[in-house]
Every structure is written in structure tokens, then in C-alpha cells.
Amino acid sequence: MKKLVYSENKAFTQKLEEFCLKANISGNVSGVVSEVLGAVQQKGDAAVIKYTEAFDGAKLKDSDLKIATEELKEAEYSLSRADKIAIKEAISQVKKFHKQTKPKAWSSLNEQGGRVGERFYPIDRVGLYIPGGNVPLVSTVVMTAVLAKLAGCPEIIVCTPPNKKGLVAPAILATLFLIGIEEVYRIGGAQAIGAMSYGTETVKSVDKIYGPGNAYVMEAKRQVFGTTGIDLLPGPSELMVIADSKAKADWVAADLLAQAEHGSGKELLYLVTTSKHLLDHINIALDKGLKEILNAKKCSKILKERTLFILCKNMSQAARVANYIAPEHLELQVADATIESLTKKIRTAGAILQGYQTPTVLGDFTAGPSHTLPTGRAGRFYSGLQLVDFMRRTSTVRYNAKSLAMAAPVVKAFARLEQLDAHGRSLEIRLPKGLVSKAKKG
Q1: 333-343 tens-digit pLDDT
Q2: ∠ CA(178), CA(181), CA(183), 5° rounding?
Q3: This prediction's pTM
């Protein structure tokens, strides 16, 4: 792991930037994705099948691409009672959280007397990408599909990669069935993004695509943007922990290891602390923790190559680091008295987990907010997935003769300033001849 001491100088910022750039795609990802997307656009199902075999090792026929409703039902029946209860609890918590964010139509009179407002509509057909290669992300089903259903999207489809036998994790299928989604395809990678964007003989194209993925999936989403709507570009997991001297070293270490085990090999971990003593103890706790988990080999590599420890003098410096990095998940393992003041200083984190007793795994699985969050410093301009992302907004404007006359002086001035006389005329032609509009004073 790499260690830095906070400084205001350019050398520190440069080193921090170099580490953050590890989130960017590397190699010929762009070229490979362009090839896949072009083939899917031209050859449809045939290309999807070809690349599914090449990348996932699964040999499929056209008829295998769509998962039958019976298979979804069987997967739901196969769940243990305990697992079904847990999944339903997560669905309930996510639904309750996002119900509070659903936008409502409104209208009011503006100062000219015109009636203005907004209306919101669910997007007609949406596509959800659910990763299932390294680990079957059952929680991602909940964190995306529940929002799409709650928004009222008429058509919701899901693409998720099969294993080498052509099968999809039963828990993913069962969760989809519990939420009420039955149009599911065993397609992953860039070919899934191409199928949802361009359509094939089997897959009807969608209006917008959602969900996290590896570098190839993210690059595919970048390349189809414009042809199809894209939610955001959530890549491999990131975690930053800001810890004070009272934080427990073994808890911090456990949270870092939890995010390291996602398995893509591209995860990024950050620890920012004001205590060198704690930092030393976290190193010891990490070594101990590696001996107690199943995915130690994967996690060890992330700790060595993609983990950064930063020592700061105070929490203000820690907040500045957090705002620069814009981490996907940010844990504030600090005293209760510090939480609110520190939170107010941080503007770019995807999700903030507050307090010693709030590990990121709560946000991953059950707390309520979607865990589909911006990565790679995209938190500077993107937010995490929201219900409103499954909707589109239309503004409404309605004037009558009186309000039209009130608006006339403004329209006339702008038409003159922009040398667009036809614009001005389109309003003036509606006014009674000789009418002198009274511009509002003040």
C-alpha cells in the first residue's frame, strides 16, 4: 500500500491525482468494446452469442438468451426461508427510502400571470445491467429494479451474464421474480449493453440503461450514450474511511477488506486518519483480517497495489482530501460530536456512512439508498442512482391574453437583442392592435 502525508504543495496533489487515475480504464478496452458494439449492431443475436462464448465461456443458442418465466419461478422456490425474508426486508427498506424522493407534478402562476409547472413521467422502457461474473450481485437487483418499479416504468428488462454452463445465479433470478420483473436475458459484458442499446432479434432496444459493471461495460455505456440514455458510469468499488484516534483498528480494517473482496481487481481503497498510532494498528489488523476471510488472495492484491493511506493533521484536511477524491463510499469513523460538522464540509461523496457503528455493508445491502454510485471521481458531477433517474420531466407553460400582454415587453427586448424579429412577431401577432402592455415596474 502507498502512504502519503497531507500537504498543501503541488507534489502531494500530483501523487494523489496519480493514485486516483488508477480508476481509469487501461489497455485496449475502448477498441475491444467498439468491435463488440459494432458487431452487435450489425449482426444482432449472432454477435451476442459469439461474444458470450468468447468472454463468458457459455455456448448458447438464440432460444437460450431469454430466461423463461418458469426458471425465474423455480429460482424463487429454491430460496431458503431465511434468504427470502432477508431479500424482502432489503426490498422494503429500499422502497421506503425512495418513496420519499418521488417527484410530484406542480403548477403555479408566475409574476406575469402565466401558469407554469412541471410534470414527471416514467421512462417507457429501461434496461438494468446486473453483474454476475466474479460475484452474483443480488443486492444490485434490489438497488436498481425496485426503483424502476416504484417509478412505474412500463417495461423493465434485465441483462446479466451467465456462467460457463450458461446459467445465472438462482438468487439473482429469484430476487427479480420477487420484485416482479420477468423479462430477463442471460447476456453480459459489452454485448449486453449493445443489445439493449441497438436491439437484436431477441432483445428489443431500451430508452435508458442502468447499473454497474467492469471496465468493458462502462466503456460500452460511454460509447452508446446518445443513442441510449445512461444513468451514470459506476465502475469497480471504492471506499474511503476517515478515522479519528478513537476509531477501532480492527473495524476499519474489516471495512477495507469488505470492499476489497468484490473481485474485479480494480477496487480502490483510501484511509485518511489524524492518528499515526491508529494507522500502524490498522496495518496489523489488516494482516490479521486476511487470515480470517475466504477471499484473502484477492484482497491482499488490492491492499498492496490499490490502497492509499493518508495522514492528516486535522479533519479539515481530511475533508479536503475527500472532496478531491469524491469517493463512492465514505465512512466517517469519528466521534459523534464531529460527525455533523465534518459531513457539512464534504460535498462530493457518493454515499456517506456516519459513525463507528455504520459500516459500508449497510449501504451495500439494506439501509435504503441505492448502492449504485459514481466512481472514478465522478462524484464531483454525478449523484448516486435515484428514483427520478427512472423518470423524465416536462415543463408546462400556459398564458392567456392578459399574461401574454404582460410578457410582451420582455419578449420584444430579447427579440431585438438577439436579432430574431420573427420571434417577437409570433407574440405581437396575438396582441390586439393598439394595446399598450404595461411593463411591471421595479
Answers
A1: 999 999 999 99
A2: 140
A3: 0.92
